[in-house]
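Good morning,

Both structures are done.
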Amino acid sequence: MAAARGFATPINVRLLRRADVAFINGKNGVIMEVRGKKRRPLVEEFVKCCCSEIRRVSGSGKSVEKFEDRRFDPNKSSNHRGRAPAMPFASSKSWLVSKQEKFFSRCTPRNSGPQSRDSPPKRDTGIANEKDWGISLLNENVNESGTNEDGSTWFRESGEDLGDNGYRCRWTRMGGQSHDGTSEWKETWWEKSDWTGYKELGVEKSGRNREGDSWWETWREVLHQDEWSNLARIERSAQKQAKSGAENAGWYENWWEKYDAKGSTEKGAQKYGRLNEQSWWEKWGEHYDGRGSVLKWTDKWAETELGTKWGDKWEEKFFAGIGSRQGETWHVSPSAERWSRTWGEEHFGNGKVHKYGKSTTGESWDIVVDEETYYKAEPHYGWADVVGDSTQLLSIQPRERPPGVFPNIDFGTAPAPTEEPPESSFSQ
């Protein structure tokens, strides 16, 4: 399948929701104010506001907050959802601005350019749903640019690419730059389809601000049918990377989710980060086969420039109440002294659990206890949920296939997800 184009995007725009302000779209695109059961148009200056422009400027909804410096503590209980140390990026815009002020500031004339977004994305936010990205493609080809009152420049363009096997890609690209060139952003939205039933929705964003922070992120959502079983599958992925301009700090994330119509669900993430003298890594995954079998695992570790290293990892496998858990916590000092504790559990499904473990300090245990085994055989978010949240993906209209023309199916395997970014991505 054709690879996603190298498109780019912005970051710091929040979706307009009805809960944020007491306004909704009335008939003919006029903004109405809701008061009880009565509706009335706002004053004239707001009636002139371009509603479609507001929707088109919507972004990921991820504003930057003040991060707390979290250190990776190996003594805390392991949890593959746990956060690693946060990277304290500065924000060029105050997040204390009221929600209504944010709304009114976007009420710009129809012919004005897209609004600037110059703040990095958040870490540890996973894969956003399509409605949170606000993907809105233009129906006509556009190629326009301009200069704002403050001297900043902007551009916006859209188009459609066609190819073999009924391939079609509709895209919209936009971006801008401050008057002095210290801040810039780009973003692209796209949708793809072909005659095999393949559908794809995606976003790519990048930018830098006057504080020197730079970032890049992309999100993709794909619907396709398995070539061998004709089983419908939906796959979602997100990659995010950011670097601080003020410190030797940066982070990278790669998230993926895979679902099929028989209930199989697979999720995972790989992360890497650095904050001055400390670096950290984390990987985790979970797989539900849709028939009661569950596999979960986590592996995370960190180190400092002084040579201190520590980590924690665990794995669990279950089916019908029978399974096992095992793990290890470890620490290495600058003088290469190593401490570790390993542990395990065997669950027999009859209320009996065998627990065992030992550490390098001489402690050990090996006991059988009466303990009820608890695990979830179904994911909290599965096939039905992702289908319900993928209405825009499912609504993509492919090109009409001529009679007697059949798609050329590629039986090649998809490339494995990227392991980790090169460390040079975060070097200064």
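Second structure follows.
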Amino acid sequence: MGDTIPAEKRKPLKDDVDSGFAWVVLIGCFVMYMFVVGSIKAYGMLYTEVVEYYSSGSGNTAWIGSIAIILELGLGPIANFLCKIYTFRRVTTIGGILVGLGYFLSGFVTRMEYMYLTFLCAGLGYGLTYAPCSTIISYYFNKRRGLAIGITVSGGGVGAIALPFLYKYLIEKYGLKGMFWIIGAIFANICVAACLFRQPIYLIKERKKRVLANNSSNNGYDVGGGRSSLGENGENIAQGINKSRCDALDLRFSLFKNVLFTLYVTSFMCCTFGYVGSLVTIPGNVKALGYDRTYVALSVTISAGVEVLARILIGLFADMNIIKRKYIYAVSMFIGGVFSLLAPFFESFTFIAVYAVIVATFSGSFISLMPLILIDVVGLENFAPAFGLLTFSLAVAVLPSQPSVGWLYDLYGNWNPSLILTGCMYLLAGIIVLLEPIVIRCCTKRDNEESSSPDNQRQIHNQCTAAEDMCKDNVGFSDTSFAS
């Protein structure tokens, strides 16, 4: 692997933004999304098979997929932290091994409850691949970021098109257990996609600056140093390296003080609750209406096929800046919510297919818009920790999602309450975004009132004075260094 080559033998890396190696990374992200997100979306097909094979309840069986999705999203901060230290390539390779192993071990399960453990393994792999795959692409694209993200996330749609029919074929030919063994081997190809990743030069430069800053701040450390400056056992170097690694784990919980960041995270959580629930309600509703396995797979495939095109077009449309991205997102949520509320009134496969198209086109568009809106709010310099916090928050929303819609089905005997619940969550997600002007106005008014108080004015004056003194000291330091 390229990142095992000694530093002195490496060629200088080019800043391949929007060109060059960026497109190779995009291919790797697309393939990884195809297996990682595609298998999550296609779980609805496995869900119906597991319920039937083990004669388990809908609500309890739904926990299997929820465990995987919770770990996929919840491990985002840790995965991004590990990628800064050990590179994106190494972390996602380990994730690919865990995903394949989790599915392979599921073939030996004798009771449905044991799948909680095997999908725990697969979920750890999902967690080590999803956030890094979603993060690295934003470092390699700027002007075409929306298009690149759209192409990447459309890989999940491609996977969701192929996997349900692949599951169906393998189950009919080898049974459920044999299907898990074969799929485990196929999903190990995530490691192949990981080999196409290369550490973004933005992070390489950032890491070098952090190490130099930490080393220079150590007392008695001389960059050009001799033995006396390093200490007897090189303690200062070790402290500098350890401190730089600790700094990489930058969870930035202070980002939640940014009201816009908190606002959008809350909205994305509501949308995720509804969207993840839809992955179960759509195929579950098809089977509940008496359609066979072919129609169940077809409902998932229709949704996935539309997503492939819709997410690319929405990402491209977002890059044009014709309409603000937040409005694209809000309108999409309202359309998805309205159709979810109408779904209980129709009991034909034709309408379910139309509903699947609407969910894929509009409700599922948040996957393409989420990184773009996040960068608009916090900037690229805070994107990695912000995305980690976002995925962790989304895991909290996923936790009750699929079990809730499954339990509602067990309670009422149909999927109508579950469809209404997902529709309400979509509508709530759109309403929260439209509250942005009111939230900004309230926060601005509060800040003005606080800043107008005498105590705060004195504090601001003292801070400004300290800042001026610091600037003078820095200028003086710079002048002396040039003179020397």
